Amino acid sequence: MTTSRTQTILEDFVTRARAAAASDSCSADLRDVLRKSLLQANAFADAIAAMAEDEVMLFEDETCSIWTCRYDADVVLAPHEHCMPVHIAVYRGTEVEVLYKQEQDRLRHGGNRNVSAGDVTRLGPDAIHAITAEGEGQSHAIHIYEGPLTQVERSLFDWTSGAEIAFTMENFHAMKRKKSDMAEFR
Length: 186
Known about the structure:
This protein is an alpha+beta fold and about 190 residues long. The mean pLDDT is about 95. The chain is about 25% helix and about 40% strand. It has a 5-stranded antiparallel sheet with strand order 1-2-9-4-7. A 5-stranded antiparallel sheet has the order 6-5-8-3-12.
């Protein structure tokens, strides 16, 4: 895929997603945009693979935040919240949402949700999850948040105590774990 083709497919997607996010039926329209994008799954996966970083913000305003996301199968990124709904489409591989509930003195594992290539899912505004990929290689996805993700104060959660920790990218990456060390995957 050429660089201009990569840019065009993502630019066109952002235009459609922005219109959906500004609509009166935002959630349904965003899911529709993501479902239609799956018709070009290989082109989207190649565009995401060509990005310089694993997580890249393509666009953000008061209506939405659009990110390309690549996750590795051997690493689990820290439990966190978004404080807004997020819609996820996976184009290659399988993204794993490791779901948690916050209790008084710990995080309780609530199960894992596999989102495979060709699937679209939604997490609600109160969801707490960690993220990884399943199988070999990376998962390639687009995440659309129903609001300005980088403008919201949100938390990470200590793996053991469930205590809230300020969300920073430094904390987010410092708290990652090896999947092989986690009971959630045994």
